[in-house]
Amino acid sequence: MYSYDIIDQEFLEDRAAEFRGQVVARLAGDITEDQFKPLRLMNGLYLQLHAYMLRVAVPYGSLNPTQLRAFAHIARTWDKGYGHFTTRQNIQFNWIKLGDTPDILDHLAGVQMHAIQTSGNCIRNVTSDPYAGATAQEVDDPRVWSEVLRQWSTLHPEFSYLPRKFKIAVTASETDRTAARAHDIGLKVLRNADGALGFEVMVGGGQGRTPYLAPTIKPFLPAARLISYLEAVLRVYNRHGRRDNAYKARIKILVSSLGAEEFGRQVEEEWLKIGEGRDLPDTELARIRGSFLKVPFETLPPKSDVFDAEQASDRAFARFVRNNVKAHKQPGYAIVEISLKAPGATPGDASAEQMEAVADLAERYGLGDIRATHEQNLVLPHVKLDDVPAVHRALQSVGLATSNISLISDIIACPGLDYCALANARAIPVAQSIQDRFADADRAEDIGELKIKISGCINACGHHHVGHIGVLGVDKKGEEFYQLSLGGSGAEDASLASILGPALPADKVADAVDKLVETYLGLRQKDERFLDTFRRAGMAPFKEAVYADAH
To answer: Residues 485-506: pLDDT tens digits?
Structure first.
């Protein structure tokens, strides 16, 4: 975990105090809603369908137990007892009263958390790998570079009023757990042929109304030049991005219209003007890297008799290990992923009691480290193999032992029309109907990896464009319909999904998904995933399965 210094702490407290004054002025009628709106958005406070929603940043998805308990306290004290983890590794509280927000921000500041820049046309919370520091795949710890970007971008005077919101992801592994190409900037940490550390820079990805995957504009950027190069990218965007049309304002539109080669050329030209003087000094990088507390791993044997015996005797635990427990770089340890997708649950929701239970587990068994994933789950990145059975039993007691990571019921879904003022259709009930249809754990495991992603509107907060099966809620003359798409991926094999056919009513979506799955199982060769079979067989057999009755 990164440890804040006194300057960080004072900054958070000052901003919370500033917002308290703004809220007091609004409640007293001294400023109008139009005057207040940009102030509250810069502090992550939205006005949704039924109440204010507060979006809290979880920097690159990294939390300690004290911070997760603070979320539980907010949920219990000022909300309805739960919080919603999002696809941006943030948490949202959906039932906030305006007058309570200053106290909430004070509470967050007390644990080094905040809601700054979780909204607005600025650089948002940086997404990173939830397995950072734990997976043997990574070239370097991506959290270090994410923290560099957090400090650089927070209240950056030149980039606080961009044409539109701006999202950055940093990954350092071959397996992409950040959806890097679906971001405005995706950074992949790598080493070149000489062993030097650097980044592949991808620019111009994004979903929403016009989805694009980010093309690579620089295959290798030396690590020491990161800040100046990103400044050049942001300057070109800031200068030429469309401010006259919100639908064409994202950088993906600029990159697409210019072409990646021409956009990259303009960035290089701007980069030369900036020069090396804007880059991060080695001493500052060393300070940030040194502020990540060293993880006190023990020297352990690579195998655990306790772990192996529990797998042999407990089928539920064996299933949990197959799906939710991942290899760790340190012998004797494991990465434990906690699903927030129990049958009938709202994807991404965690109750105050569940958050406190995870905080307790992290403290007792997980070296005090917790991660939020962009797929709306939680992770204990450092658990001894000996302790995994105890963690599993504790998770069972609070309804968090669902063994479905990356399976068909591990569904990403936005809040949809149940909460969001932008949505056209509900997403949560559709996700629950699919979860119910595939509640048989044996069948789900037989189907294997299948990522369903549901959005309640074209803004695509549920990432439907990069779902193996994407579901988009649409409004048809006041009725909710759902358009299915196939073949998307947000991982290292990124692709955009293609529309299957006409939209379906809500009560037909689970049936359609069932037909798609049965078609896949009939076509599957060896160990093919759903996505692999679709890419080989094409759209036709899946379309026929769903729409045959309409002929």
So the answer is: 999 999 999 999 999 999 999 9
Residue the block writes with tokens 């059975």:
389
Query: Residues 99-153: pLDDT tens digits?
Result: 999 999 999 999 999 999 999 999 999 999 999 999 999 999 999 999 999 999 9
Q: Which helix (H) or strand (E) holds 111?
A: none
- DSSP lists the bridge partners of residue 384 as 333
Which spans in 47-189 are helix H?
Answer: 65-78, 101-109, 142-153
User: What's the CA gap between 29 and 487, in Å, rounded?
Assistant: 51
**Residue 373: φ, ψ to 5°:** -105, 160
Q: What is the DSSP string of 54-69?
A: EEEB-GGGEE-HHHHH
β-pairing verdict for 168-171 and 127-128: parallel
How far from the centroid of its chain's Cα atoms is residue 201's Cα?
19
Give the other-Cβ count within 10 Å of 262's Cβ.
Answer: 12
Going by C-alpha positions, the residue among 250, 487, 491 that lies closest to residue 374 is 491
Q: In 489-539, where does DSSP find H-type helix?
A: 509-523, 530-537
**In contact, 423 and 416? CB cutoff 8 Å:** yes
Which one, of 87, 168, 127, lies nearest residue 375 by Cα? Answer: 87
State the Cα angle at 326 between 345 and 389, rounded to 5°.
Answer: 75
pLDDT at 277 (0 to 100): 84
